[in-house]
Structure formats: structure tokens, C-alpha cells
TrEMBL record:
Protein name (database record): TOD1/MUCI70 glycosyltransferase-like domain-containing protein
Domain TOD1/MUCI70 glycosyltransferase-like: 53-184
A Pfam family annotated for this UniProt entry: TOD1_MUCI70
InterPro entries linked to this entry: TOD1_MUCI70 (IPR006852), TOD1_MUCI70_glycTrfase_dom (IPR048354)
Domain of life, per lineage: Eukaryota
């Protein structure tokens, strides 16, 4: 940012900021704002003409950061269980379904640029194409269906689209150099996150509610998952 803009922002109590890379309409001053709001809020538009070349690929319509540690969703699932991000049993159920449906661990045979099935979902850059809109819709549906750990389902939706969805994963170092990451602070907020057995969903446990999704966890999977053995995970990072 220009030093003049930085000094302007320092004087604001609240900043409403918009940011774009290129191809924008002529900006207009906000209208219909009360006198009190003008004293409280500053409106800022940032046009970044440099960063995009590090984050975008001309032949892709969707870009997202690669996860710092993991490439396979099964690695990420293992880390989530160790860090108690969600009920281990329900994470295993989600992974069992994905593996049963053919979702293999990450390998070099997969052809996503930069190579990973696990993103850092905080920053998404995309064109508003029909396919990128469809991908986001399917990804959200999956988060709504199973656990709210969105990094577990990204690679699965890529897999189900069978190579039709072309996206770019920029390196995590680019992500960290351009954006400030604020880690999760949410504590466990529902009984669902602490269950120890699927039987807890039955009988008295049927009154359980998960406000953040998980609706598919109450619906029996139509296939027998008892024979599913998840692929082994090699823990390559202390961070999980």
C-alpha cells in the first residue's frame, strides 16, 4: 500500500476494504451513509497489480493455496484426529466412504498443478465460470453432508469431477508472504464432536444436532463399509 493510504487507514476506527486484482469497474464513493457512519467507517479500495502473477495460472479458472504439510486427504484426516478437531469416529466414517468410492491417496500420477489434494482454504481466487461455481457448490454440499473440516473434501470433489475441473495450487510460501493467517480459535460446540460410537446417533442420541452440517452422518451409507481398510499414513510433520 502507498504510505499515504497507510496513514489514512491508521486514523480510521473501522475499515471497510475491497480488493481486486484487475478488470474492475470505475469505483464510486459510497452513498446513503449516515453522518455517524462517516465518522466511524473508512472505505478503502485496494487494486493489487502485482500479486496475481504469483497466484494465477492463465490456463486455469480457479486458484487455491497448497497445504503446508499434507498432500493426501488421509494425512489431513489423521492430523485432524490427533488434534481433536472433530470426532475421530466421524472423520473415519467420511474417509471410509471416500476410499470405498475410489478416492486414492495423493501420488505423482495425479495431474493437478503443484500437486496436492489438500488446500489451505482461506484464500480462493476464481473466475465466475459455470464449472468453478459448480465445484464450490459441490464442495459446500460435502462439508454440509459430513464433517465441517473442508480440507478433507476438496480433493474428493476434484476426484469426482474426473479431471474436468482444472485448477491451480500456488505454493504455501506465496500464501504466507501475501496474507496474514489467523488460526482457528473455535472450541468444540456440540455433542456430536465428542461421540465415541455411532450408536449414540440412535435412541436418545437421535436428538443430537450439528448446526454446522453433518446431515449425512445420520443417514446409513447404502454399502457395507466394514471391510474398508484406510491406507496407512506416514506422519511427515510434527505439526500434523
Amino acid at each position: 500500500m502507498n504510505p499515504v493510504d497507510i496513514e489514512y487507514v491508521k486514523k480510521c476506527r473501522f475499515v471497510v476494504a475491497s480488493e481486486t486484482f484487475d478488470g474492475y469497474d470505475v469505483p464510486h464513493q459510497p452513498s446513503n451513509i449516515s453522518i455517524r457512519s462517516k465518522k466511524l467507517f473508512c472505505f478503502l479500495m485496494v487494486v493489487d497489480e502485482v500479486s496475481l502473477k504469483y497466484l494465477w495460472h492463465d490456463k486455469r479458472t480457479y486458484a487455491i493455496a497448497q497445504h503446508k504439510h499434507h498432500r493426501s486427504i488421509y494425512e489431513e484426516a489423521d492430523a485432524n484426529k490427533r488434534r481433536k478437531r472433530y470426532a475421530r469416529l466421524l472423520i473415519d466414517l467420511q474417509m471410509n466412504i471416500y476410499y470405498y468410492e475410489g478416492m486414492e491417496p495423493w501420488s505423482l500420477k495425479k495431474n493437478t498443478i503443484s500437486g496436492s489434494d489438500v488446500p489451505e482454504g482461506a484464500i480462493i481466487i476464481r473466475e465466475h465460470t459455470a464449472l468453478s461455481n459448480l465445484f464450490n457448490c459441490l464442495w459446500f454440499n460435502e462439508v454440509n453432508l459430513f464433517t465441517p473440516r473442508d480440507q478433507l473434501s476438496f480433493g474428493y470433489i476434484v476426484y469426482r469431477l474426473r479431471g474436468l475441473f482444472k485448477f491451480f495450487m500456488f505454493q504455501n510460501c506465496e500464501y504466507n508472504s501475501l496474507f496474514v493467517l489467523y488460526l482457528h480459535t473455535r472450541e468444540h460446540s456440540s455433542k456430536v464432536e465428542w461421540i465415541k460410537s455411532l450408536s449414540e446417533f440412535k435412541g436418545n442420541g437421535s436428538s443430537m444436532k450439528e448446526s454446522r452440517g453433518g446431515f449425512g452422518l445420520w443417514t446409513p451409507y447404502p454399502k457395507n463399509l466394514d471391510s474398508v481398510i484406510l491406507p496407512p499414513v506416514v506422519r511427515t510433520s510434527k505439526a500434523g
